[in-house]
Amino acid sequence: MTMSRRKAVAMLAAGSLPLPLLAQEPYPARPVRLIVSYGAGGAVDTVARLVFPRVSEALGQPVVVENRAGAGGTIAASAVAQSRPDGYTLLDDASGFAINPALMPRLPYDARRDFLPVARIVTVPNVLLLGPGCPAATVPELVALAKAKPGEITCASTGTGSSQHLALELFNRTAGTEIVHVPYRDTPAAQNDLRAGRIGMIVSTATSALPLHGQEGVRVIAHTGREPVARLPGVPAVADTLPGYESLEWHGLFAPAGTPPTIAAQLAAVLDSVLKEPGLRERLAALGASAGVLPPNDFRSFVGGEIDKWGRLIRAAGIQAG
């Protein structure tokens, strides 16, 4: 028979129960707080609010979503880094987590040291979204046009140092082109200028681009992943033209460093089970997202690789936070 917590406390007070035994409380025994690094309604928040109600059901405890947007996700990350490593405060972050260390060298935390990567949840490819102002229909045509007119094709992104900006910078360096980056504060403004021909193209997440594909001369000519995108049948990968090219948005779960590995493994296993539900996978696929868990050790290696990859690019290009 399992000893009740009240009896354990009484025995501890009497000196007949060692402290470690009292700490063996099943996880989770109370609500879990999930801090999302971006604002309500954005891509990261949308995925979190699809996935974590199922996680809550599987855990038998509420998972309370709290948005802490700002400073490229660093406000949320800083809050979690300073939290107790007990599994009750978690971070839902995205690709910016691996970009920020090089983009913002004075972060109030160490992305490698202060977090325990728990699981990668989804990946979302970026896409090359061209408007009526750019006549290319394929990646080879875009490369040829950009080389013929260096500095004349403009490309919008969601901001300096964003995943989309770095995807463009990687494209330029891989293809030997000079497509000009134009940072925008918000996606709708960039999309309006794309339709009007004031901007030649946008590097965008598949999630944001899907509603525009095929409208008013706007079209996706390629995606930046390696696997086909179900919602974009027949659309090739940039890597088909530029071998080795890859730029993925990803969402993942982190805990403060020092969180017991057993808790991380439990959360990863729950996420793996949840993300295999056909209905949820279909809803995520409709957003252009590919669901699939990378467990703690694999996710740690992946994040480290992302920090290295984007750090090299940021330093080589001299990119600084706007």
Write a short abstract of this structure.
This protein is of the alpha/beta class.
Topology:
Layout: H1 5-13, H2 19-22, E1 32-36, H3 43-59, E2 63-67, H4 74-81, E3 89-94, H5 96-103, E4 115-130, H6 139-148, E5 154-157, H7 163-175, E6 180-183, H8 187-195, E7 201-205, H9 206-209, E8 219-223, E9 248-256, H10 261-274, H11 278-286, E10 290-294, H12 296-317
Parallel strand pairs: 1-2, 1-3, 5-6, 5-7
Antiparallel strand pairs: 3-9, 4-7, 4-8, 4-9, 4-10
Helix pairs in contact: 3-10, 5-12
Structure description:
It is a single chain. By secondary structure, the chain is an alpha/beta fold. The chain has 2 domains: 30-124 and 248-317, D-Maltodextrin-Binding Protein, domain 2 (3-Layer(aba) Sandwich); 125-240, Periplasmic binding protein-like II (D-Maltodextrin-Binding Protein, domain 2, 3-Layer(aba) Sandwich), CATH 3.40.190.10. It has helices at residues 5-13, 19-22, 43-59, 74-81, 96-103, 139-148, 163-175, 187-195, 206-209, 261-274, 278-286, 296-317, and strands at 32-36, 63-67, 89-94, 115-130, 154-157, 180-183, 201-205, 219-223, 248-256, 290-294. It is globular and about 65 Å long. It starts with a helix and ends in a 5-residue tail after the last helix. Mean pLDDT is 91; it is low at 1-22.
